[in-house]
Each structure stands twice: as structure tokens, then as C-alpha cells.
Design goal:
The chain is mainly α. The chain has one domain: Orthogonal Bundle (434 Repressor (Amino-terminal Domain)), CATH 1.10.260.40. 57% of the residues lie in helices and 0% in strands. The protein starts with a helix and ends in a 6-residue tail after the last helix.
């Protein structure tokens, strides 16, 4: 994921739900700083983590990756 679409979409979805990054990390079963690292583009999610985020927001993984517009 060499682009910035995923971090931006993740942050936008999280803010729409009015969740902190820490809360979203917990809700998706991740370490407390994981979402922040994704949003900053410092780390990329594994497939299973990407699926967990997509499931939580009820969007496709393609949407998160910028391959689809929802």
C-alpha cells in the first residue's frame, strides 16, 4: 500500500463514528496504538487486520485500499 488513500479513508471513517484511534484499535482487537500507526502511514495492516477494519465499518477492503468508491 504505497499510497495515502488507506490512512485517509481510515481516519475519515473513524471520525465519522466519533471514535478515538485507541477505541477503534480495541474494538477491532488490536494493540492500542495500531490505528494511529496506520493513519500516519507508519505501518500497513495485515490482511486479517484490514478485514477486521472493513467489517467494523461495513465497507469493502477495496474501498479502504482506494480500489472502490464504496
Amino acid at each position: 500500500m504505497s499510497n495515502q488513500i488507506f490512512p485517509k479513508r481510515l481516519q475519515n471513517l473513524r471520525k465519522q463514528k466519533q471514535l478515538s484511534a485507541h477505541a477503534l484499535s480495541e474494538l477491532c482487537g488490536m494493540g492500542k496504538n495500531r490505528i494511529l500507526l496506520y493513519e500516519k502511514g507508519e505501518q500497513e495492516p495485515t490482511i486479517s487486520k484490514l478485514e477486521a477494519i472493513a467489517d467494523f465499518f461495513d465497507v469493502s477492503t477495496d474501498y479502504l485500499l482506494g480500489r472502490d468508491h464504496k
